[in-house]
Amino acid sequence: MDIVDIIRAKRDGARLTDEQIRFFIDAYTRGGVADEQASALLMAIVWRSLDTAELTTWTAAMIESGKRLDLSGIDAPTVDKHSTGGVGDKVSLVLAPLIATQGAADPMLSGRGLGHTGGTLDKLEAIPGWRADLDRSELMTVLRNVGCVICAAGGELAPADRKLYALRDVTGTVESIPLIASSIMAKKIAEGTGALVLDVKVGSGAFLPDAASARELAETMVRLGAAHGVKTSALLTNMDTPLGWAAGNALEVREALDALSGTGPKDLVEVTIALAEEMLALTGIEHTRSGLEAALGDGTARRKFKDMIAAQGGDLTGPLRDAPEQFVIESPAPGYLRRLDARAVGIAAWRLGAGRARKEDPVSAAAGVLCLKKPGDEVTEGEPLLVLHADDARRFGPARAALEGAFDIGAEPPEPRPLVLARIGP
Ligand code: URA
């Protein structure tokens, strides 16, 4: 098999055969195809795409590049959620323990954040002692004993994706629906979960801001899940404004703890419950919305979260680290907050130190943005709208620049907008 023939075939718009796809993924993962050749093929795919059959084989080959997790030793139905990433998206921290209280098991293998959206592992690493890196036997022990585990994906899970994603990142080839769908789904299918719900974000803070692309991505991933025997559905959810009040690692853990105690922000709770209902429906576990709300209100879900954190070495007995420096942004006028832009808040939190520009950069546990007002809230002139948190006051200038033009105050409240925009699935 000649890699140059494969590149030429895709360049000219031909379908790749199963053998060509399997050869490429295997050879590239093992170092038998040069980066420049893989880049050329990826760029040809950006232009020419992959059809459903090619994409199914491409994803299967990525899964087979590593070891699939075997969850057959778990008695409960397994189900997971994946979000395409949003600002203030701490849903996983609340959702995994919540569905575990209902008798499902969630093996949530997760990643660190890059750019303006935070990563679940970065948030949990704000808890002193908490360990993301579990070996397979530790992961299975936490999942069996607690009913949920959130940890790092590890090198054995779809290693082809690790190499391909790093290459796509530096060759302008991330933005391809089949490449994104296969990258996300290979990792989730390799996780061994029986069912999967995708939270595909739409809006300014989302990875794919426009609704048509988000829908196409969701439909492609739902088809891929079904083709690989994983019951899959997707919710399209609004990401024009940050979810909840906080964007930043420790700030988000605190907010997740509030939500796990029944006192979380309305939007965060609404999206979490919608996803929980979707996940439980796929597993066939009987549940009610009021039962889920009760698990948040009566401390059951919070206890589950604490058990999961403690099983991974985390200590929640003391306070989480507070930022030494804070800067308040006030409302310039009285009225209603009509708009608060998610992407701008995400970039501000990132510039304050909550996120990283390169994979190897450290993140600050304490940095971030607290939104004291959300769209629809009434404000007086001079009332605090946002509080910036940082370890170093020199970060406030660049963060404030990101927030210029990020919000509007007007005489009328904005039209309320639904959070769950659509459902895609069987
Ligand atoms: N997230 C992934 O895991 N892969 C992509 O290609 C894009 C976002």
Quickly list its features:
single chain; 426 residues; alpha/beta; 4-stranded mixed beta sheet; 4-stranded antiparallel beta sheet; 16 helices; globular; binds uracil
Secondary structure layout:
Layout: H1 3-11, H2 18-29, H3 35-48, H4 52-64, E1 79-83, H5 91-100, E2 106-110, H6 120-124, H7 136-146, E3 148-152, H8 159-171, H9 177-190, E4 195-202, H10 211-227, E5 231-238, E6 246-247, H11 249-259, H12 266-283, H13 289-297, H14 300-311, E7 325-330, E8 335-340, H15 342-354, E9 368-371, E10 378-379, E11 384-390, H16 396-402, E12 407-410, E13 420-424
Parallel strand pairs: 1-4, 2-3, 4-5
Antiparallel strand pairs: 5-13, 6-9, 7-11, 8-10, 8-12, 9-11
Helix pairs in contact: 1-3, 2-4, 2-8, 3-8, 4-9, 4-10, 5-12, 5-14, 9-10, 15-16
The chain binds uracil (URA).
Structural commentary:
This protein has 16 helices and 13 strands. It has 426 residues and is of the alpha/beta class. Bound molecules: uracil.
